[in-house]
Amino acid sequence: MSTRDIYRPRYHFTPPANFINDPNGLVFYRGEYHLFYQHNPFSDSWGHMCWGHAVSQDGVMIFSGSAVVDWRNTSGFGTADIPPLIAIYTGHSATEQTQHIAYSRDAGRTWRKYAGNPVIAIGSRNFRDPKVFWHEATGRWIMATVLADQQRVRFYRSPDLIHWEHLSDFGPAGSTAGEWECPDLFPLSIEGEQNSGRWVLKVDVGPRNLPHGLCGQYFIGQFDGIQFVNDNPPDLTLWADHGMDFYAVQSWSDVPAADGRRLWLAWMNNWRYANTIPTSPWRGAMTVPRSVALRRYPEGLRLVQRPVVELTGCRCNHFGRAGLSVADTNRQLQASGMAGDALEIIADFRLTGATEVGLRVRSGDGEATVVGYDAVAQRLFVDRTHAGDASFSPDFPDRHAAALTSVADRISLHVFVDRCSVELFGGGGRAVITDLIFPSPGSTGLELYALGGEPVAERLDIWALQP
Ligand code: FRU
Question: For residue 22, which atom of ligand 1 is closest to its CA?
Answer without folding.
Answer: 7
